[in-house]
Amino acid sequence: MKTPLGSDDRGPRTGLRRMTAALLLGTALIGVPVGAVLTFDRPAVAQNQAEAQTSIVPAAPGSFAGLVRQVTPAVVNVSTTEHPSASQQMADQDEGGQMQRQFPPGSPFDQFFKRFFDEQQPGRRGPRGGGGGEGGDDSNQIIHGAGSGFIIDPAGYIVTNNHVVKDADDITVTLNDGTVIPAKVVGTDEKTDLALLKIDTDKKLTTVEWGDSDAAQVGDWVVAVGNPFGLGGSVTAGIVSARGRDLHSGPFDDFLQIDAPINRGNSGGPSFDTSGKVIGINSAIYSPSGGSVGIGFAIPSNLAKTVIAQIREHGSVQRGWLGVQIQSVTPEMAEALGLDKAMGALVADVQDDSPALKAGLHQGDVITTYDGKPVNQLSDLPRLVADTTAGTTVPVEVLRNGKTESISVEIAKLPASQEKVASADENGPAVDDQLGLSLSALTPKVRREFSVPDEIEGVLVTGIRDDGPARETGVGPGDVIVRVGSEAVKTPSEVAKQVQAAKEAERNAVMLLINHQGDQRFVALKLPKA
């Protein structure tokens, strides 16, 4: 039985008081835009009238009504229907038998984030009236979903998220005036979670333009428009809270973080700047509960518009390929490499038959600029390379052995498959007191004992001291030290020699290239002070 609005099981008067309190609270907050700073003048404190009126806090816009009238006709609702097979239904059901959208195992989205995709439970009627009646045939369950999108071309091209339309059998778009039109998928890009739809209609369509997300600063206003919970046409406002957020959901993560309230169903909807241009596509929220807590993430427009342009032209995205495995440069690594600060992308491995190998990039190089653009952090390089047209030759600056070198690389198309030693024995077991490691040469007997393949060369770590510097790096027994600094090593004494050389160069850390079960990575080990 439905409870009437304004009442509860303790009688209508209690519920009315609660509703009144809520309304009063809402009234107190309305007119104070999210992110605004409240100040209270105390004239007695100010030395003069001019000082009392001086403030570094910009005035909040009086209203977004004009902007909203301009852009909302271009924002649409995207509804999907999926007819899962019996095997898919079994795979997607939780212990209670309810359908759940699955994410890759270990994905941060699977653990911490809630997508906005507004799925209705099979056999239940959702806010849009879909989902069938109760007691139906479970073998014919249908999944209904609702998201958002926006029109970028009067020919009927609509941008949304890939996860909104993924696996959908039928897609319909509802325009701002209520017109419902079937849509087809032009193409999708899973790596950036973007999709392009197309509708055919004789109606005159309102469009919106791409804005410059690179110009958006932390603290700038944003207005989000979308279809939360299938309600449609909802508008919220907030600010850009942060830039360059990496959620580890894909190789090109560069999210804008916004605090404009967005919820399930906002996926694929636009975030506008105050000029009414799209600077982000709302895609995810951080939420312990599933509802908005003021931490939302939007794909920046400058990333999205190049992807969408390629999907429109080719039906898919064609990315550049360099062919290196890279890792972040930590402060300890920077010190060991002679860098003033932690920056760039450290080349951990160079792939066979890759543009990087042909151009002469080496393991241990630190890529600092690409095509004239700085590589300040690890995530910068994949995006720069991906945006490069195959066949283009670009200059790449690297730090190698303490010196800067410039290398010309012809970028290829990303393949489909990718996108002091205590022992006098030269080869015997040894303990490096400076690193806190027990080491051994890779003799045939040691290889068999630790299952080290013949193609791996280096010095084996057989033990680790609890109070040694290596304990914090994750290096452990069975790992193989391939290089110390820029020098390959094959014996414990060679390791000690390179460590001593680093100390004589007055470095506080040393770089080790570690092979762990076939995967290679660099670690920086702090050297004990003399």
Please give a structural write-up.
Strands 22, 23, 24, 25, 26, 27 and 28 form a seven-stranded antiparallel beta sheet that branches. Mean pLDDT is 75; it is low at 1-57, 90-139 and 420-431. 18% of the residues lie in helices and 30% in strands. The N and C termini lie far apart (78 Å). The protein is of the alpha+beta class and 530 residues long. The protein is elongated, with a radius of gyration of 29 Å. A hairpin with a 3-residue loop joins strand 3 and strand 4. It has twelve helices and 28 strands.
Brief overview:
By secondary structure, the chain is α+β, with helices and mostly antiparallel strands. Helix content is about 20%, strand content about 30%. The strands form five sheets. Strands 22, 23, 24, 25, 26, 27 and 28 form a seven-stranded antiparallel β-sheet that branches. Strands 1-3-4-7-6-5 form a six-stranded antiparallel beta barrel. Strands 8-9-10-13-12-11 form a six-stranded antiparallel beta barrel.
Q: Cα distance, first to last residue?
A: 78 Å
Number of helices: 12
What amount of the residues lies in strands? Answer: 25-35%
- The overall pLDDT average reads 75
Q: What oligomeric arrangement do these chains adopt? A: single chain
* Major β-sheet annotation: 7 strands, antiparallel
Radius of gyration: 29 Å
Low-confidence stretches: 1-57, 90-139, 420-431
